[in-house]
Request: fold
Amino acid sequence: QFLESWYAQPLFEPLRSVPGLAELLKRRRRNDPHGLALSLRTMGTGAQPSLWDSLAAIKLPVLLLTGALDVKFTRIAREIALACPTCRTEVIEGCGHTLHFEAPDRYIAAVRKFLRERK
Reply:
């Protein structure tokens, strides 16, 4: 029941039309619920310290991939890129928050391109 309500959030709306969603939910149900809850409590965005003041010090190249339908995290990625000179954003059209699952081929292509440019 938790997974259904979790993925019913507007953030995951694009994911609901992906054919592999049933398989994703099946795999997620095999996870330990206590471990997942602990993960959310200790590593969720509400528990993480703010590192905005440290972004300018990042020396390594960073790719921030977001889905265009994920307006909130696309905005945050752009703000990060403004604060971090080595960060680059790429927005994948037609995708939401789970772009690696919604469009794995485009996700992988973007990561490969980024890595090739760094050789």
Remarks:
- The mean pLDDT is 90.
- The chain has one domain: 2-117.
